[in-house]
User: Which sequence fits this backbone?
């Protein structure tokens, strides 16, 4: 049995047939060929699959695709032209916030949310905010420093 859903993916209206049991991450990767969303734990713990649903970060491995009928989904590919994501990509590169890159799409989506929501976050708050995203390579220091770099640059530019 399949269900017809219509949703907006990265600004593009899409109608598709999905099984009610298909998770959003699998739907995006396998049916929409948007492989920027990564799957790690597949049970809502590691954050690798983080994307935006109606602008809010969400775990796509524990979200059914049918639950996104009528909603707007933004993957890391959809943030290509987003200025905050662009600043973060540069900062992750400059601060060595990635090694293998597996966690990076989810990290960027989550970090963008922190930058937009918590402009005055200190390093401890950044760590708390990012605690739902796991990285096996970096030890997190580079990731925190990257977010710190973007927040500091924004304050400098504003002041
Ligand atoms: S793959 Fe979704 S939280 Fe780990
Ligand atoms: S860079 Fe490898 S898991 Fe984070």
Assistant:
């Amino acid at each position: 049995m399949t269900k017809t859903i219509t949703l907006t993916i990265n600004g593009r209206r899409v109608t598709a047939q999905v099984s009610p049991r298909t998770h959003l991450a699998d739907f995006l990767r396998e049916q929409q060929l948007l492989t920027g969303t990564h799957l790690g734990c597949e049970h809502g713990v590691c954050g690798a699959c983080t994307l935006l649903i109606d602008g809010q970060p969400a775990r796509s491995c524990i979200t059914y695709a049918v639950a996104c009928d009528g909603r707007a989904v933004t993957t890391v590919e959809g943030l290509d032209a987003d200025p905050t994501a662009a600043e973060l990509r540069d900062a992750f590169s400059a601060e060595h916030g990635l090694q293998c890159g597996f966690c990076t799409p989810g990290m960027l989506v989550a970090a963008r949310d922190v930058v937009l929501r918590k402009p005055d976050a200190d390093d401890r708050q950044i760590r708390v905010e990012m605690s739902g995203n796991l990285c096996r390579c970096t030890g997190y220091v580079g990731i925190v420093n990257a977010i710190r770099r973007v927040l500091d640059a924004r304050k400098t530019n504003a002041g």
Remarks:
- The first helix runs from residue 24 to 31.
- The chain has two domains: 3-78, 82-158.
